[in-house]
Amino acid sequence: MQVKSRHHLRADAVSELETALAEQLGVDMDADTYEKVELDGSEFDIVLVDDEPAVVYINGAPFLTVRGANDYPPERRIVTVDAGAISFVSDGADVMRPGITEATDDIAEGDLVAIAEENHGKVLAIGRARTSGDDMAGEEGKVVDSIHHVGDELYEFSV
């Protein structure tokens, strides 16, 4: 991933970003620096929060990266998976109903979600919900499409 451009966000853009993440995820970001990084040949733009890639823009909407979600744990839009799903989700697999132990009821179809493991609450991936949170657990079917996961190019990005 090559950096196309990099610039500090203006105060109004920082305020919009913080408000969006607070409303979506219940996250209170209070950082010193916010820098937007546009990547060449990537569908993502990243925001470095105190020099760490903590926020990613997906289709123009801000959401936490995996590293960002572990630094600023979300309170909403969380799908929790069991130990059997960890290796699959960490490798970028979509999330299937049988691996889900819990999903917050604030998730609507199409929402971006953080996918966490049940034992320590660490976020393993970011995905897009195919169904509402109250319909996620069950016997069969794919319910979250993986977008970004531990070990992918975005996770490994550094400046």
What do you see in this structure?
The chain has 159 residues and is of the alpha+beta class. It folds into two domains: 2-71, Pre-PUA domain, domain 1 (Nuclear Transport Factor 2, Chain: A), CATH 3.10.450.120; 78-155, Roll (Archaeosine Trna-guanine Transglycosylase, Chain: A, domain 4), CATH 2.30.130.10. It contains four helices and eleven strands. The protein has helices at residues 11-25, 66-71, 86-90, 153-156; strands at 2-8, 34-40, 45-49, 52-58, 61-64, 78-81, 95-96, 100-103, 112-117, 123-129, 142-149. The chain has a six-stranded mixed sheet with strand order 7-11-10-9-6-8. The longest helix is centred in the N-terminal third of the chain and has 15 residues, at 11-25. The relative contact order is 0.17.
